[in-house]
Write a structure and sequence with these properties.
159 residues; alpha+beta; two-stranded antiparallel ribbon; 5 helices; 25% strand
């Protein structure tokens, strides 16, 4: 999700699999050096990656509302959100979905949020009911994701 938003701010609209994989591997290597691990980063750790790896200014908002998310999107900001993936209800996930996952909320249409989800091949422009999506936003919380705090992350473009 961070890579997708970084490419968005660079004005790159298409990301091929080879370029994306290289960007992921580079970021994973950086995370290993910075955190000594790379999986299941909290919202605060994800913001630290954006700030220290790419030099973005970040905004973390707790207890987001549908209106808040729509306002950020209307201002041109994609929204990164962590989810309890087992409750999200996306039929494109294998099994019953991931325990913890992040995706980008990039638009809305009526009472639906439009997302880009790096967790599935059919993740581009996938739409969710906004209230339902809001109900499954949860941070890592040491692996107890369904009881994690609800946060969203905004990256402000570099000056």
């Amino acid at each position: 999700s961070l890579i997708m938003v970084d490419y968005f701010w660079q004005g790159i609209t298409q990301l091929d699999a080879e370029t994306a994989n290289g960007a992921i591997l580079d970021m994973v290597e950086w995370e290993k050096n910075y955190f000594d691990y790379y999986e299941d980063t909290t919202m605060v750790e994800t913001a630290a990656i954006a700030e220290n790896y790419w030099r973005y200014h970040t905004i973390i908002r707790k207890n987001p509302t549908v209106r808040m998310i729509k306002e950020y999107i209307a201002q041109g900001y994609p929204v990164i959100a962590p989810f309890y993936g087992k409750a999200i209800g996306n039929p494109n996930y294998s099994g019953d979905g991931p325990l913890y996952h992040m995706m980008v909320i990039k638009g809305y249409k009526g009472d639906k949020f439009i997302t880009n989800d790096p967790g599935t091949k059919r993740g581009a422009d996938y739409m969710y009911d906004a209230e339902h999506l809001l109900s499954v936003i949860h941070d890592w919380n040491g692996g107890d994701v369904q009881n994690g705090e609800p946060y969203i992350l905004i990256l402000e473009p570099r000056g």
